Amino acid sequence: MKIAIAFVLLFSLLAVSSTAEKFDFFYLVQQWPGSFCDTRQGCCFPDAGKPAADFGIHGLWPNYAKCRGSQLQGLARAVLGEDAAALFSAVGRRGRCWPEYCNDGNTLSPWEIRDLVASLDRNWPTLSCKSGRSFEFWSYEWKKHGTCSNLEQHEYFARALELKAAHNLTAILAGAGIVPSNTETYSLSSVGDAIAQGTGFTANLECNRDADGEAQLFQVYLCVDREVKQLIDCPLSMRSKCTDRVKLPVF
């Protein structure tokens, strides 16, 4: 009986949170193409051809400043006890640090972003070998993240492009002497400091490993206010595979 009540509580709480919860900020996630490709998995160029040696948009992701699963788990523990709360944690943890798939029926229309396609091809290309078609990548990002953004389709992609153009990460790092190289490494702190000085705000950094197992700068998470108008200091730290020194491989 307690388990049945736990499931009722779980789904009722999730139903309430889906209509009442508001995300707190956006991540504008940009990835270095050389680091995407310089792995054991490798990469494939999109239908528009090889992208420029420039940070490319991965996505514009609504995010919570505090994961919601822990709050709901605490309520379950108070009402039902430890066993049911443990079950609730196992079932309800996924996706509670951010909203996702808020409207599966709202699929991306090529017509809505027709005037942005050329800019998206340059600034938001796919490097995945799954399809090689960037529109499928944009459609996935819209379905998973964009439908939770409180933005219309055109506005969602246009705002991301505007933010990327206003804060050119490739130029910011180059201005600090951090340029692509297959031999040079850079201190992680110098990368973070350069981005903070160039944008005026602290960002989160994510690294991956190249084919030889060396750490390389992979993605930069710029944090953006809920109106998608200006950057903010990132309210959350995040786990990464970064070491004290990282590569920025040539693309």
UniProtKB/TrEMBL annotation:
Q: Which Gene3D superfamilies match?
A: Ribonuclease T2-like (3.90.730.10)
Its keywords, alphabetically, are:
Disulfide bond, Signal
As given in the record, the signal peptide range reads 1-20
**Source organism (scientific name):** Setaria viridis (Green bristlegrass)
Matching InterPro entries: Ribonuclease_T2_eukaryotic, RNase_T2-like, RNase_T2-like_sf, RNase_T2_His_AS_1, RNase_T2_His_AS_2
Molecular functions (GO terms)? ribonuclease T2 activity; RNA binding
Name used for this protein in its record? Uncharacterized protein
Q: Which SUPFAM superfamilies match?
A: Ribonuclease Rh-like
Cite a GO CC annotation: extracellular region
Active-site residues, Swiss-Prot/TrEMBL: H58, E141, H145
